[in-house]
Amino acid sequence: MKNIYSTLPVIGILLLTLVSSALPANKPPEKGGVLPVINLPIPKNPTEKVYLGLSGDGFFKIPQIKAKVVIIEIYSMYCPYCQKDAPGVNELYTFIEKNPDLKNKIKLIGIGAGNTPFEVEVYKKTYQVPFPLFPDKDFTIHKACAEVRTPYFIVVKINDDGTHQIVHAQLGDYPGADPFLELVLKASGLK
Amino acid sequence: MQKIRLANLIMVAGMLSVFVTVSMAFAISDAYKGNIYQVGTIKPVDSKLVVKKGNQAPDFSLPSVSGDKVTLSQFRGKKNVALSFVPAAWTPICSDQWPGYNIIKDTFDQNDTILLGITVDNIPTLFAWINQMGKLWFPVLSDFWPHGAVAKKYGVLRSNGVSERALFVIDKKGAIRYIDVHDINKRPPLEDLVGALEKLGK
Questions:
Q1: Which ipTM did the prediction report?
Q2: By a Cβ cutoff of 8 Å, what residues of chain A touch chain B?
């Protein structure tokens, strides 16, 4: 009996550890900080795989994307502002891809907070989103980002040694492709 | 003895917290700014259905935000009908449910279905709330007075006066073909509703 009781604190601590991992982060990703741990599935779509410079199967972390800068949009299919901004964010992708100086340096991805794979596909099809979108069905990534409202944009600079730094983050207020690209270039030092 | 009590306390708190944190997740659009009232996690379902699949759907007439009165039976023989009851305006999950339906009008059209959104809120509240969603293509109806009467007819009125988060799909003959009284704390996956719509023609 004594042995059972002596294990209780250990079980309690283990449970609390589990709980803390399920709890939302205190602070959203901010300029000067680093990303929370985000594991995304390597896309099955070959075009998306090539776009991100990834190979094989399994999972990847955002700093593994072959780029100098990664722009992450945390969005939801159910979010009116994300829907409204979708054409402008697509335009940002097009501006980057059409510019030979930027094409291989800046990559764009979207993470659908609370969206199932089906919902992500609906959004992708409705707005003809040309860049990779990832479902976050169980809000795991959204929680790691302190449950930010959507859309939330994070600009990450990837260093040559594999480390990274958030150089810009903003909630909503997407200003359009041109001004946002300008902001990304300045914040990341690409300009 | 005190150490044992503390250990038990830690364990129980840990177990309870898991359930609380897992069920509270939602994403709020910035469209609503800071105006969404946090309700926390509540009892998943707090009513008893009084209809079932295959039953004739109870008829009703309700005022819509646009000013028209909408009667369920007006669609009989013409359109299938999806009813989306959501609990309350300006609350987290409800505010990020209909904007998703708003971008799949083509799916509803392909399945010859009209969507009717219903809450127990009054018209002015609904007007202000849905304006934040952008322009909705489907009617939004107020089941405010007699309070929650339609929700009660279907058995989805909760004990605190709001409705469940519930979906009903009704065919052109007026028969209920699909019911999802969903956990009020979670948004129903879109694929479930779309699957139900696609079965209507079969």
A1: 0.80
A2: 5, 8-9, 11-16, 18-19, 22-24, 76-84, 113-114, 116, 118-119, 122-123, 126, 138-139, 142-143, 147, 149-151, 171-172
Region B55-62: mean pLDDT is 98
| A27-188 has CATH 3.30.379.10 classification | no
Binding-site residues on chain B for chain A (CB distance < 8 A):
3-4, 6-11, 13-15, 17-18, 21-22, 25-31, 96-97, 99-100, 102-104, 132-134, 187, 189-191, 194
Locate the domains of chain B by residue range: 2-199
- CA of residue A53 relative to chain centroid, distance: 16
Listed in sequence order, the residues at least 6 apart from A185 whose beta carbon sits closer than 8 Å to its beta carbon are: A191
Write down the CATH superfamily of domain B2-199. Answer: Glutaredoxin (3.40.30.10)
In tens, the pLDDT along A77-102 reads: 999 999 999 999 999 999 999 999 99
Q: How far is A39 from chain B (nearest CA, A)?
A: 19
Q: Respond yes or no: is residue B94 known to be catalytic.
A: yes
Q: A153 pairs with which residues across the strands?
A: A73, A170
Residues B50 and A97: their CA atoms lie apart, in Å, by: 56
Q: Which residues in chain B are closer than 8 Å to A84, comparing Cβ atoms?
A: 134
Contact criterion met (CB below 8 Å) for A68 and B19? no
Query: Which sequence spans correspond to the domains of chain A?
Result: 27-188
